[in-house]
Amino acid sequence: MSILSDLSPGLFPRDPGTFECQTARAPDYYGLGNRLGIYFAWGNAYIANTMLASEIAGASDTNNIFLLVILIAMIKCSSAGMLTHIDGLILMHLSGGFLFGTLSMWGYRTRQYFDNGPQGIRFFGGFGTHSRLIVSCMISSYGLWYWMYGVVGGLVHMGSPEETGDLEVDPPNPPECETLYTFMFAKVRADGGIRIFYIIMCIGCIIYYGTMLLISSIAGWARATRMLSLFKQKRWAESSRLKFATGFKYRELEVLFRWLRWLNLAFLIYSMLLVEFTLNFNHVNAVLGGPHNNELHLPAQLLPLLIGSFGFVRTCYLLFESWRSPEDIDPSLSAPPTPVAARTMHTRDVLLLFSPAMARRPTTFHDPDEIDKTAKQRGWPVRYLVAWLPWLSLLGFFQERPALEDRKRHSKGSENSERVDSKTSAEYRTRRSVSRGV
């Protein structure tokens, strides 16, 4: 441990002889149990997104609930004066892991499109997509406030005279705790130049998610219109679920998934290191764990730990079962049941009796140029716009055939008709001349 501490002094607890900093509610916000539960939830979502499509919905909901809890804690405690600048910093770093590592609005970082092609969008666009969108937009808005005002005086600093009342700790924090540090591949001040970077990132996220949130109103209008139409026609049995389309081709979806698979893993590892280094840089040693100060037996830390760890273990078990005996895994409600394979044992299949995982699994091949039929005749600017904002695929201009294509078809049809007419008239003149000769 001493060798590792020398190599990475920011990752392990510091010498007990140095000063320590603490906040009144650090164990409730980001205690060891809370952080481990979140890390397990990240791992659960990553495995589901990249290897086990049947668990994507459950993992996404779990991560969204964790993120919603963090959002409520930051907003409520900031308004009540119960959040310090170090508390907000750690919670913002944890939020970033969810936004850029696990959550996906339309599932482009999941394997649904890799397995199903452009038709994989049918798994998204419902309540889960819009709830994740709202939470992500609110987190980005709070992040902008935090990096513009909270980190420079909007929140109470550790070791400052304002650390009284609900924020008072025993023993009091020394004045050295007032300076806030974070990690960006080095130890940097949180109120320094890195603050500008995070402000730009938050503004970009607000524009990105805010635009999606505004455009998503199209889905609400289309759903209400369809429900009203079905009600007037007394077609009670028909579903009002909307059918979205993506503008990406299968080749583009495949490349996107392969790249995001590794980028997401790298960012999740970086987010874990970011949180742990930040805690060590600011000497918040009381939440780093240990035999006497982990408080894992308390519900505030035990509950997130069990939720995250049980979900992670369950997903890993289902992944193992899907590799070993895929026919024994019950499909999700949205997937059609898979017929059980024949159990006839041939001579060449004797080894499968001892290792079912050696069996070949059915593979679906997709055309690299496969694309939704409504986007087939669209130019790449429109296709990519609809890929970012699939709600636009519900509009009439996207559902209709492009005018340019209509003109091409019309001109081509006119040319063919002119050729037929000229050929017919020529044949008529020939027959007439022959009849006159006779």
Automatic annotation (TrEMBL):
Residues 405-438 are annotated as: Disordered. Keywords: Membrane, Transmembrane, Transmembrane helix. The chain crosses the membrane at residues 36-53, 65-83, 89-108, 129-148, 196-222, 259-281, 301-320. Residues 405-430 have a biased composition (Basic and acidic residues). It comes from the Eukaryota. This is Uncharacterized protein.
